[in-house]
Amino acid sequence: MQRREPPSSGRTTSSWRSLPPSTIPIVVIVICFFVVTPPRSKNPASRRKSIQTRFRGALRSNETDHPAIRSPAPTGTEGRWLTAPAAEAVDAVQQHALSEGFYVDTAEGTSPRLFSSEQARACLAGKSVAVSGDSYTKQLAIGLIEVLTGKLTNSVIRNARKRQRALDAALATAASDLTPRGINISFPCMKPCYGWSGRMLQCASCLKATGADLVILSTGIHLAEKWRSELSTHENATVRSLMVAEQVLKETKLVFDSITNLIWGTSPSYNRQKIPEKYKDTMPLSDMEHFYHKTLRLAQDTGIRLADFHEMTRACVWDNCTADGGHRSRFVNRAKAQAVLALVCPDDTRLARP
Q1: N or C: at which end does the chain have fewer Cβ atoms within 10 angstroms?
Q2: What is the pLDDT of residue 108?
């Protein structure tokens, strides 16, 4: 068989000595990589560990494109986002979480709490769950229903009208798929619990009247906007921001003091680069940061069950985590739902592996 000659050199060679000097280091590096890189262990314990520590190239899922390489969370956060082989999953919910990304709270350990739909339904069997709050909480409710039903989508929620439509559709799915199983998911008290100032006591009364076994509430951004406007004449911006946060905490504490079966979800961390230009100067971002830290201290002092969505969203640095800097993508909202389930469900419901 006649050897084909490379057009650039006009000759052939089978010896590495004839390679240009500049290419020899590359060849050595490649050879070393294959020599020192161990094969994947067949030990099941080793495979289980890999799901907690490895970054894997993410799969394309539905309408969301994921980057080929995922970066770790910035230093200083309490958790990080990972991907892992989807073959470890037992159902579609876990498969999507592993391939799209899941959050691990490193302060509580490295083993992920990823509930399958069956495990999530078993946890909430016979319970009524009232979810309420602002637009971020609407998307949490959608994510929770997706985890419970296993009916997932990554369609982008671009505005308030589409958000409400998506919530209505999710609640209809919950009524048809979950209510017959004894699980009642609702989103009551929209107006008083959305976050308008002066209505939080009404919000607490409304949520108590539902008789729900579990209440999940998260709000704050609109309260902060109102109080920032009220205190706009204060000359010192830092002092004003602290005063706004204190007033927001004072209002939300009315709910903390009234509802014993409450899980409070913190407001998200805001990605300033993604916030539309027209909102960058008006959103009370520093006020919300102070409110978050005040809420953490209150939870530590009083024992309020807290779902820390702030740290979770701050740690998600991938480009597809958020489109507008505040509202998160569907896979992040499902991760929020997983965090709520981890607070409610027994600790033995960990990620099932084959």
Answers
A1: N
A2: 63
The strand order across the sheet containing 262-265 reads 184-186, 128-133, 214-218, 262-265, 305-307
Residue 218 has pLDDT above 60, yes or no: yes
Q: What is the DSSP letter of 325?
A: S
At position 170, the amino acid (one-letter code) is A
Indicate left, alpha or beta for 325 from its phi (over 0: left) and psi (-120 to 50: alpha).
Answer: left
- Using DSSP, state whether 166 is helix, strand or coil: helix
- Condensed to tens digits (0 to 9), the pLDDT of residues 125-164 reads 999 999 999 999 999 999 999 999 999 999 999 899 999 9
Strand 214-218 to 262-265 pairing: parallel
Phi, psi of 94 (to 5 degrees): -70, -35
> In one letter, which amino acid is 253?
K
Q: How much is the pLDDT for 17?
A: 44
**Residues 86, 102 contacting (CB under 8 angstroms):** no
Cα dihedral 93, 95, 98, 99, rounded to 10, equals -120
What tens digit of pLDDT does each residue of 103-112 get? Answer: 998 766 656 7
Q: Which helix (H) or strand (E) holds 327?
A: none
Cβ distance 284 to 221 under 8 Å? Answer: yes
Give the confidence band of 31 by pLDDT, cuts at 50, 70, 90.
Answer: very low
| 266 has a pLDDT exceeding 50 | yes
Q: pTM above 0.90?
A: no
Write down the H helix ranges in the chain. Answer: 24-36, 44-53, 92-100, 117-124, 135-149, 160-177, 190-193, 200-209, 221-230, 237-256, 277-280, 285-302, 309-315, 330-344
CB–CB of 271/325 below 8 Å? yes
Region of poorest pLDDT, from 23-27, 132-136, 216-220: 23-27
